[in-house]
Amino acid sequence: MAIAACMIQTAHASEPAQCQTQTAEKTVFEMCMLPGAAFQHDLYTLKADKVLIAALVDDYAESVQLEHKLLDGPTIEFPLSRQGGNPVSIVGGCVPESKDQIEVARVCNFRWGKVQIIKDVRFEFK
Q1: Is residue 53 a contact partner of residue 66, using CB atoms and an 8 Å limit?
Q2: DSSP-assigned beta bridge partners for residue 31
Q3: With contact defined as beta carbons under 8 Å apart, do 19 and 30 qualify?
Q4: Overall number of domains in the chain
Q5: 110: which strand partners?
């Protein structure tokens, strides 16, 4: 997965990724924005303990719902997937902020089940 994320960044970004980390329930979450070239789309990535969960182009990063149905029996799961609900969902997004009708930033918030995993992560545009 790390190779895929690196390939995405290399092929897409005009500048280095802007990343912020937050910890929830002993899991380190990383939210990144990979800026596109001028007049191109930006890419948002969400990782849990360095594992890529999602990579979303800006047009589809505003309202996100990922759902995972847990199977019976022994499986490898992220700890937050075992909160008691089945299926478990990751919901949230990176919402644009505007000033004078120009997008100046995106603010990201995500929940994994009942746990807030990304809270008010802000990416400002230059």
Answers
A1: yes
A2: 20, 46
A3: yes
A4: 1
A5: 92, 118
The whole domain housing 96 covers 2-124
CA distance 28 to 49: 5
Closest Cα partner for 20 from 28, 5, 33, 31? 31
* Local structure of 46: helix, strand or coil: strand
Give the span between the Cα atoms of 81 and 55, in whole angstroms. 19
Enter the tokens of residue 65.
């719902």
Confirm if 31 and 51 have CB atoms less than 8 A apart: no
- Model pTM score: 0.85
Taking only the tens place, the pLDDT of each residue in 36-48 is 887 789 999 999 9
User: Which segments of 1-126 does DSSP mark as H helices, in order?
Assistant: 2-12
pLDDT tens for each residue of 65-81: 999 999 888 888 999 99
